[in-house]
Design a protein that fits this description.
With about 80 residues, this protein is mainly α. Helix content is about 80%, strand content about 0%. It has one domain. Helix 1 runs antiparallel to helix 2.
Length: about 80
């Protein structure tokens, strides 16, 4: 039961970050326009929050394995983007 509360709070926090990022990206109240930069910032915030929550769940594991997996994931992500 507690695990499900934690997961629901995580998704609630992700939704709040997304909504606030969208609100902060509004240039003028009369023209609601999302720029490409604001969309990328929103996506970066979502990925950052997801990474933080996933690594929090891994905190009981060996720290060296966590670092290696995070570096490999970052490298693969950067390679895909490049």
């Amino acid at each position: 039961m507690r695990k499900y509360q934690s997961i629901s709070r995580m998704w609630f926090a992700i939704a709040l970050i997304t909504i606030v990022s969208m609100i902060l990206s509004i240039e003028d109240i009369s023209s609601f326009k999302l720029t490409a930069g604001s969309i990328f910032v929103t996506l970066a915030c979502l990925c950052w929050e997801l990474k933080n929550n996933l690594t929090r769940m891994l905190s009981l594991k060996d720290p060296m394995q966590i670092v290696i997996n995070k570096v490999l994931g970052s490298c693969l992500g950067s390679l895909l983007i490049a």
